[in-house]
Every structure is written in structure tokens, then in C-alpha cells.
Automatic annotation (TrEMBL):
Key words of the record: Hydrolase, Metal-binding, Zinc
Reactions accelerated catalytically: guanine + H2O + H(+) = xanthine + NH4(+)
CDD domains with a match to the protein in the record: GDEase
Annotated ranges, domain Amidohydrolase-related: 66-428
Metabolic or biological pathway, per its Swiss-Prot or TrEMBL entry: Purine metabolism; guanine degradation; xanthine from guanine: step 1/1
Organism: Undibacterium griseum
Physiological role: Catalyzes the hydrolytic deamination of guanine, producing xanthine and ammonia.
Keyword check for Hydrolase: yes
Record-listed E.C. numbers: 3.5.4.3
The UniProt record lists the keyword Endoplasmic reticulum: no
Protein name: Guanine deaminase
Amino acid sequence: MTITAAFRASILYFTDDPACNPDAMRWHSDGLLLLSGEKIAAAGDYHLLKTQLPPELTVSHWPGKILCPGFIDTHVHYPQTDMIASPAPGLLPWLETYTFPTERRFQDSAHAHEVAGFFLDELLRNGTTTAMVYGTVHPESADALFTQSEQRNLRMVAGKVMMDRHCPDFLQDTAETGARDSEALIRKWHGRGRQLYAITPRFAPTSSERQLALAGELANQYPDTFIQTHVAENKDECHWARSLFPKARSYLDIYDQCGLMRPRAMYAHCIWLDETDRQRMAETQSAIALCPTSNLFLGSGLFHFEPTIAAKIPLSIATDVGGGTSFSMLQTMNETYKIARMGGHYLPAASMFYLATSGAARAMQLENTIGSFTPGNEADFIVIDPQATPLLQRRSQHLNSLEEQLFVLAMLGDDRCIALTYAAGKPVIRHKNTG
């Protein structure tokens, strides 16, 4: 293996869930990250790996910085970038007043490309190198996101929304056109370079039984695609879904009956699940994307950590922009911690960083591709500055452990802490204050 690039700094990554395995966190205070082209070659202590350095290779050295795998955001709506922080008394009026009118514009390919470009750059500026992304009902929206992602050589998962009822006419497809357009996008984009496709029914109330059934058929026909949708976010939404599908045992069961629960299925929110729902998620290895800033902003409810952990459901955290109020996964960790505490659960900083990196990759069934510094994984990583602000500089003078340092970053950090972002071994964002 030819070493093509080398980076020296502190190194943080995970080989397992630190909540289950106390040896899962890898920390090298003076570390060396070696790349071979677009892939990880090795990561470890500098003094152990420096002998592998070719004599002609210049090492990028960042004293005081932390190298970490790029953050993974498992639930985000790129068309909602321009309506983030829109006021509304709840989820359903928020959709009617802001979301649907904003999404109407994405039938215009030029508009979709402009927003997609800004959206991806904003992700990268915040250290997010992979995301599971919703488009709109328009196929043009997915094409735009994938095109912009391909130009940046990013690992992105995205899909065209399927929505054939209970929404404005200008945002409706049909069961047949939704499935046909989705299949065309799968054939065009899934597995093309670093792009992956997600079958994307918006949520059960805006899809007919026929549309969900066709989505399930697509999921069966293309088993390595992803599935993404919403479930049990808000009590009013739950009641509405149950009224529309009276034969289903629960809101989640609507999807289960249509063949939409399997590995690589990502369900956002999952606040109002019951024990049977959680058992079914664990059995099918369907995953949860916890969206704390969105849940708090829309008043949806507080996620229940203890039963989720007990059921061993794959879990990750996500921004859910534009219901979510920040692109920063550090700020998302902040709110995740607070929601956990409100439910009586203590979430260590190591677990929060795991959920935003290796844990998210595992939830997506991509742990052998992204999310860690395991040799052979794709070289998506970030350079974190733990003293990026005057407050962080001052607080850093009084640290007693690595856990405390990571906790301070999660509580006080934001986009200013991301000094550089690398995708496939190449820099894609460099902050002004980085040499």
C-alpha cells in the first residue's frame, strides 16, 4: 500500500459502542493518520507509525487539534434550508405554512441546484461529510443534490419524496409516478461513485396504501438501497396516521405491513413508540434517527433512551433541518444530552461522538465504509479545534480528562470548531482561521 498523505494531531475514533465496550474509544494524543489515495491506510500513535512515512512525504501537522471521522447526519431536508427557524405552533401547521410552499420551488432545476450547493457546503462547514437527505416530490430535486454531491466527491444518501395525498396539488405525485420516478433515480444514481439512493415516502399520512406498497416493492427489488421516512414524531400526527390506516396495530406497523422495515431503513423521531414497536425495530434492524433540536423546536416530545437502549435498536442523531435549528452536529449533541437528562438518562460525551460517527455508520449498515479510521474505510475526516472560541480557550485550561474535553466540545462547540473538512482524502472546506 502506497502512503499518499499523512496528518499529525490528536486522533479520536471508535471501534464499537463505548456504552457497551469500555475499550471501544481510540484516542491517540499524538497521533498519525495515513492515507492511501481516498482510503484510510492506518491510524495510531505517531511514534509507532512514523516509520511508515515515505521520506519525501510532507506531514500536515496540527498541534492542539483533533482528527475525527466526519460527522454523519442521518436525517435532514435540504429543501428546507431557506425556511429554517420558521415559527409555528406545531408540526402540522408548520408543514402547511412554511414547508410545502418552500418545496414548491424545487420543480425548477436551477433553483434546486443553487440550494443543493449551499446545503452541501453548509454541511461540510459544520464537519458533516455524509447525510441521509430528503429532496422534494420533484425528481429534479434529487438529481440536483446528487449532481452537486458528485462534483464534491461526497458520500451522500438521498431520495425523491413520495407523496400522493393530503398535501397541496402542486406537491403531489401518484402511487405509480412516485414509484416510477424513484426507480429511475435508483438506476441512475444508486452506487454511482459515492452516491446512494433512499426510497423516501415522506410519512404515512401523505402516502396512500398503494404508494406505500409500491415503495415496499421497490425496497424488496433493490435490497441494498436505503429507506427513509418519519414515524411517531408528534401525538397529533400519530392519531392522524392511525385514523387513516385503521387496520394497522400502530403507526410503525403501517410501514411494516408494506415491507418497509429492514436493514438500511432509517426512521426519524420514534418518540411515541411502544414496546412492541421497539421489539419490531430491533428484529428488523431498522434504525432510529433522533432529532433533538427539531423535537424541541416543534414541541413534539422527548425521546425515550432507556427502552431504546434496552431493545438494542440501532440509534443515531440527526439535525432534521429545517425543523431542526442547526446544521452543527456539536449543537445537536448538546440538545441530545439535555433530552436524555430530562428522561433520567445520562449520556457521556464519548457516546455522543459515537452516535455522530461510527454509531451512525452502523445504523446505516455502512460501518465498513465510513465513520471510523479502520484501514480501508473512506478518508472522510475533520480537524476539530477544541479552542476555537475565547470561551473554549478559557474552559480548556481547567480540564481533568478526555471525557471532560469532549463534553465541553459537545456543550460549547459549533461550526467554529471545525477547522478543516476532508472528503475522500481531499480538503473540501477550509476555515479562514486555518493556515
